[in-house]
Each structure stands twice: as C-alpha cells, then as structure tokens.
C-alpha cells in the first residue's frame, strides 16, 4: 500500500471512526478530556505506525483499543501523582450493566451530553462539532465566525463544566426529551451545514461523512419522537439538501449553484422522502417551526424541473414567515436573494446593504452583493465585493466559483 493510500485510509478512518472512539471512551471513563486526548493520541499513533505496519483490517477496533490504552496510561500517571486510586481501579473493572435508553447508540449519548442545557447554546454546538463531528478548532471557529483562540477556550471551559457538574452520559428520559431535543437539533443542523459546505480549505468541499452522520442521528431522534414537527422538519430539510449533493460540485471542483445544477442528477428518492415529510407537517395544521419552514422553502425549489418555473412569491412568503420566528441577519440575507428574483436586484441590494454592520465578516454577504452588483452592471463594485468574498470564503469549491465569476467581469 502506497503512502498516499495509507494517508487516505487514515483520513477516512478519522471521518468514520472519530465519534465512535470518543463516545466509547467517554462511556468507559466518564471524562471528555480523557476521551478526546486519547482519541487524538490514537490517531497520531496510526499516522506513525500504519505506513510501516499497514492499515489494520478493522481500523475502528484498532483505534478504539489504542485509545483505551492511552487513556489507561494517563489515568495511571494521574493516580500515581494525585493518589486517585479509586479512579485508577475503574480501568481494570468491567463496566457495570446499565439500563439502556430509548435508543442504544453511543454517539447519541455523547450528543446529549454535549448538548446539556447547563451549557450555552453556542458552546453546545461547538463542543459537539469537536467531540462528535471531529472538526478541528479552526473549522469550528470559522463556522461561528469567531477567533480560533476564543473557540478553543470555549470548548475547554465546556468540558471542564461538564466534569465539575457531573453531567451524566446518557439519553434523557422520555419526559425530559422535548425540552432537550431543540438544542440537539440545532447542533445536528450545524454539523450538517459543515458537511454541506465545508469551511476548511484543506478538506473536501462537501463532506459526505458529516452530512450522512447528521442525517443518521436525526433519523434516530425522529424514531424516538415521531410526533415532533421540528424533528421531522429538520430531517426533511437535510434530505432535500443532501439530494442535490452530487450535483453541487463540478468535475473541476467548482461549486455549482442551484440555478445551474443538473436536476436530473438529484437523488429522486431523497427528494420524494423530503417532500413527503413536508406534506405530513402541512397536513397536521400545527404552526410550523424554523426547520419546517426551511424544509418547505427547499421543497419549493426541488418541486420544479426548471429553475425558471420556481414560485419565487411562495419562497419570499415563506421567508417572511421565517423572519417572524428567526429575525436573524442570515435569514434576511437569504430572503433578499429570493426578493431579487421577484422584485429585481436593485430592491434586493438595498435590503442587503442594510445588513453590512452585522455581516461584514461573512463571505456570503459579499458574494450576494457581488452578484447583485454584477446584475446591475456595476462591474467595478462587483469586482471588489467578489475579492472580499474570496478572501473570507474557506470552501475550495466556493472559492473556485467566486473566482471564475469575478474574472468574467473583465
């Protein structure tokens, strides 16, 4: 096996096994710091040994075993230094049997631990992306539009708080689930978004491992809470977005926007499932939440075979409804994009420019301005906006697309 093959195997193992390894160690040792450090050491050991020894037949089992040994070594060192004999003893004893939750899935347990309401929402998201998604601190910082140092400190404080407060590692009881699930959905949505449009310049532009994991865990939560509208809405949103994955990046590695995608390449089964979930929620006549409205917007986009047949008035109406629930600048930006198709780019640009103070560091804001200015014939201003968007964008496919659009201005 070549060095390149081994490197690809390690990358694949990290994508597929990181959360499993961290979850297994968290279950056994009850400490996120130990779990994360031991998992990281196991992968570092793989980088050293696999090129010489070869990739093991079961990479996940090898990594888990190695990580367990690393964790035991750390606890032994700490027990000798601090006299924690009781803590050290646990590594030799079999885990006592524990009643299974409604869903027996280690990663789901890990998510509920990371999403505990004792933590701030932003912290829950960041911690889950690190511990479950395996994203690096720089990737998470870009997702939150904050400095890397601040994000690292946030994650460190979160792990310390979980340990100090003895937050349990388990799926909540049935009566606690409704109050806890909204935070989990927010995290899963962010994990999905990182896979849908990866922010790291050194990662694949679309990370199917993250989108697939987000969908898998959302399906598990839907099985647990089949009557929850927002769970169904988030699943529908993910499915309708994932259905377009193979059409979103060209053979040359460039982002393909919705209006230019080959709709025949979309996954028809995922589109049908997403539409079915949206119809079920509409039939319930229960006022929709944020994810249900976003799913409905995606259903409008995926219900026509030609972009020219898109019902933009319906899209704008749905964004108006969403803005009442979530009056965020991101929602306002996306609404303006739809307004451009309905009322023209000049009206949309006026709405976008009002968002400058809140979105000046967000690449999509500048990309949207660049496109609207291009449509208005203001090439010099458009060029400058494209430059700013390229500077801020982390996704390689998106950067390639923005660069081409800018260069077409002449």
TrEMBL record:
<keyword id="KW-0804">Transcription</keyword>
<dbReference type="InterPro" id="IPR013324">
    <property type="entry name" value="RNA_pol_sigma_r3/r4-like"/>
</dbReference>
<dbReference type="InterPro" id="IPR011990">
    <property type="entry name" value="TPR-like_helical_dom_sf"/>
</dbReference>
<feature type="domain" description="RNA polymerase sigma-70 region 2">
    <location>
        <begin position="20"/>
        <end position="80"/>
    </location>
</feature>
<keyword id="KW-0805">Transcription regulation</keyword>
<dbReference type="InterPro" id="IPR046531">
    <property type="entry name" value="DUF6596"/>
</dbReference>
<keyword id="KW-0731">Sigma factor</keyword>
<dbReference type="Pfam" id="PF20239">
    <property type="entry name" value="DUF6596"/>
</dbReference>
<dbReference type="InterPro" id="IPR013249">
    <property type="entry name" value="RNA_pol_sigma70_r4_t2"/>
</dbReference>
<dbReference type="InterPro" id="IPR007627">
    <property type="entry name" value="RNA_pol_sigma70_r2"/>
</dbReference>
<comment type="similarity">
    <text>Belongs to the sigma-70 factor family. ECF subfamily.</text>
</comment>
<feature type="domain" description="RNA polymerase sigma factor 70 region 4 type 2">
    <location>
        <begin position="111"/>
        <end position="162"/>
    </location>
</feature>
<dbReference type="Pfam" id="PF08281">
    <property type="entry name" value="Sigma70_r4_2"/>
</dbReference>
<feature type="domain" description="DUF6596">
    <location>
        <begin position="180"/>
        <end position="280"/>
    </location>
</feature>
<protein>
    <submittedName>
        <fullName>RNA polymerase sigma-70 factor (ECF subfamily)</fullName>
    </submittedName>
</protein>
<dbReference type="Pfam" id="PF04542">
    <property type="entry name" value="Sigma70_r2"/>
</dbReference>
<dbReference type="InterPro" id="IPR036388">
    <property type="entry name" value="WH-like_DNA-bd_sf"/>
</dbReference>
<dbReference type="InterPro" id="IPR013325">
    <property type="entry name" value="RNA_pol_sigma_r2"/>
</dbReference>
């Amino acid at each position: 096996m070549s060095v390149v093959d081994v490197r690809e195997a390690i990358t694949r193992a990290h994508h597929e096994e990181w959360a499993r390894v961290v979850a297994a160690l968290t279950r056994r040792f009850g400490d996120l710091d130990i779990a994360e450090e031991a998992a990281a050491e196991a992968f570092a050991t793989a980088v050293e040994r696999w090129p010489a020894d070869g990739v093991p037949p079961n990479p996940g089992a090898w990594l888990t075993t190695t990580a367990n040994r690393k964790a035991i070594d750390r606890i032994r060192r700490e027990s000798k230094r601090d006299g924690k004999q009781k803590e050290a003893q646990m590594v030799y004893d079999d885990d006592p049997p524990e009643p299974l939750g409604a869903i027996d899935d280690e990663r789901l347990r890990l998510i509920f631990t990371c999403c505990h309401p004792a933590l701030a929402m932003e912290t829950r998201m960041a911690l889950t992306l690190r511990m479950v998604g395996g994203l690096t601190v720089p990737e998470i910082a870009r997702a939150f539009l904050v400095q890397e140092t601040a994000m690292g400190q946030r994650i460190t404080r979160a792990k310390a708080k979980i340990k100090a407060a003895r937050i349990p590692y388990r799926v909540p009881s049935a009566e606690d689930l409704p109050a806890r699930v909204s935070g989990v959905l927010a995290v899963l949505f962010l994990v999905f978004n990182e896979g849908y449009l990866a922010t790291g310049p050194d990662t694949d532009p679309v990370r199917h491992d993250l989108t697939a994991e987000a969908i898998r865990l959302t399906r598990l939560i839907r099985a647990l809470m089949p009557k929850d509208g927002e769970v169904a809405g988030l699943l529908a949103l993910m499915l309708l977005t994932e259905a377009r994955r193979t059409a979103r990046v060209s053979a040359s590695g460039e982002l393909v926007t919705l209006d230019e995608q080959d709709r025949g390449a979309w996954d028809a089964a995922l589109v049908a499932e997403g539409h079915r979930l949206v119809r079920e929620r509409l039939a319930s006549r229960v006022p929709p939440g944020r994810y249900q409205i976003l799913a409905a917007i995606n259903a409008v986009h995926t219900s026509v075979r030609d972009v020219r047949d898109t019902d933009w008035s319906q899209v704008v109406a749905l964004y108006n409804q969403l803005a009442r629930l979530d009056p965020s600048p991101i929602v306002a930006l996306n609404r303006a994009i739809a307004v451009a198709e309905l009322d023209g780019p000049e009206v949309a640009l006026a709405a976008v420019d009002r968002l400058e103070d809140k979105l000046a560091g967000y690449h999509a804001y500048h990309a949207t301005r660049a496109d609207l200015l291009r449509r208005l014939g203001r090439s010099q201003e458009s060029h400058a906006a494209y430059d700013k968007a390229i500077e801020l964008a982390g996704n390689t496919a998106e950067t390639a697309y923005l660069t081409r659009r800018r260069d077409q201005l002449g």
